């Protein structure tokens, strides 16, 4: 201890010069500023983290942890359907360029599946077996294709039918008579029996997917219309020809499914889809503008809308006395 005191006494204090004092003070100021900056940054990061965590907690508390899953399972007319579409738009917005087409196809396929599901839930299919013994107006057609036979029946302005494995006229007459409680001689007399040298196509049996009645609520009609618009917009923007064909086929199946005996009318012209439900007085017109179109295209589309309105009125007048024309046209198509 004494040695330490002696050493301290022997130390002589040295006076700092003016330049040394300024340099020392500058170092102190810089060190203080850095310390304050680091402290502020830490506080800001902590505060931001608290803010984001708080928002996440509030969302989870209000909506529940399964909200995202529920939204993804929502369909047209559901409360969370808008959230589902918003999440998909967000996913598409932040997608990389090589993933964009894949996500578009996924969204379009989901829209088509949702429309199909809600349409089937709201409609009734043509029965494969029925008692038509009292039918006053009866038409029967059997088209024998190389892979299957398609039977179409119209009784009192309603469609029936099925796909059969039978190929001969006599066998089909017996089968039809049994399924629809008809006399074989009557079936044999009126049946239109034709043999086709090709496989059947989707349009040959599209009538089997038709719904006799489909009644959407106002929200469902609006969501279905927007979903069809989404699919059309995706088709018109940046897809390969193979992907376009795939979605076109799926969309055509939906249009066949929704095409109905005057309950729901759908007309597709170019990049426009019109939906009209006479039973619920709901009319939806969708116009999808192609990005490559010039400004003059809008005027043409407006004219087309007016023309379509006139055509709709004419068609209503023409069909007021008969419900067969629409079905025949669909089958021919």
From TrEMBL:
<dbReference type="InterPro" id="IPR043725">
    <property type="entry name" value="DUF5667"/>
</dbReference>
<feature type="compositionally biased region" description="Acidic residues">
    <location>
        <begin position="300"/>
        <end position="333"/>
    </location>
</feature>
<keyword id="KW-1133">Transmembrane helix</keyword>
<feature type="compositionally biased region" description="Basic and acidic residues">
    <location>
        <begin position="279"/>
        <end position="292"/>
    </location>
</feature>
<feature type="transmembrane region" description="Helical">
    <location>
        <begin position="52"/>
        <end position="71"/>
    </location>
</feature>
<dbReference type="Pfam" id="PF18915">
    <property type="entry name" value="DUF5667"/>
</dbReference>
<feature type="region of interest" description="Disordered">
    <location>
        <begin position="279"/>
        <end position="333"/>
    </location>
</feature>
<keyword id="KW-0472">Membrane</keyword>
<keyword id="KW-0812">Transmembrane</keyword>
<protein>
    <recommendedName>
        <fullName>DUF5667 domain-containing protein</fullName>
    </recommendedName>
</protein>
<feature type="domain" description="DUF5667">
    <location>
        <begin position="75"/>
        <end position="136"/>
    </location>
</feature>
